[in-house]
Write a structure and sequence with these properties.
The chain is an alpha+beta fold. The protein is built from seven helices and seven strands; from the N terminus they run βββαββββαααααα. The chain is globular and about 40 Å long.
């Protein structure tokens, strides 16, 4: 297998999972609100480089405790350039994937702090079983409609004012108390 990640605006390759990263479903305990924000940023980095992450399915996603992200590719496969529609179909799948293991409110609220309203609206177009990877749709819970509704509300609410400082999270979870 091959693992690709984006760091410092460069696509990196390793033949083994990057150090400190584990399979998405093995470490859902790491999916805390600040980590979700970092995962969104690291997923967005793929699109900023113009690279498609490939099908967003749980077996391909590797995460780190602080929100590092890598995607697993089959042997002899590699990331390809984004299509003209950009990262929208991948973002739709990404939001549905995260929502399978984290509250919808957190996934969408954290997405709003990273993604523009335009990017979220574009993803909404692809947030149906017809466009989502079948492996993702088949995985319980059946959540695509709930995520689509939450994203639609977020888009109509408009951009966030200010940025999250995670004060509520830091007060409840002081550094070193994970």
């Amino acid at each position: 297998m091959h693992y690709f990640s984006v760091q410092n605006k460069k696509l990196l390759y390793t033949s083994q999972p990057p150090a400190g990263l584990e399979s998405f479903f093995q470490r859902t305990d790491w999916l805390l609100p600040p980590v979700i924000s970092n995962l969104h940023r690291n997923f967005q980095a793929w699109g900023l480089l113009g690279i498609a992450p490939g099908p967003v399915t749980p077996d391909r996603v590797w995460i780190g405790a602080e929100g590092a992200l890598a995607l697993r590719f089959a042997p002899f496969a590699a990331p390809k350039p984004l299509l003209q529609i950009g990262l929208a179909p991948d973002l739709a799948a990404w939001l549905v994937l995260l929502d399978k293991r984290m509250e919808t409110f957190v996934v969408v609220a954290r997405a709003r702090s990273v993604w523009s309203g335009q990017a979220l609206a574009a993803a909404l177009t692809f947030m149906t079983p017809a466009f989502l990877p079948q492996a993702l749709v088949a995985l319980p819970p059946d959540n695509w409609e709930r995520v689509a509704q939450a994203v639609a509300i977020a888009v109509t609410d408009g951009p966030l004012m200010g940025t999250s400082q995670d004060r509520h999270w830091q007060a409840a979870h002081p550094p070193g108390s994970k």
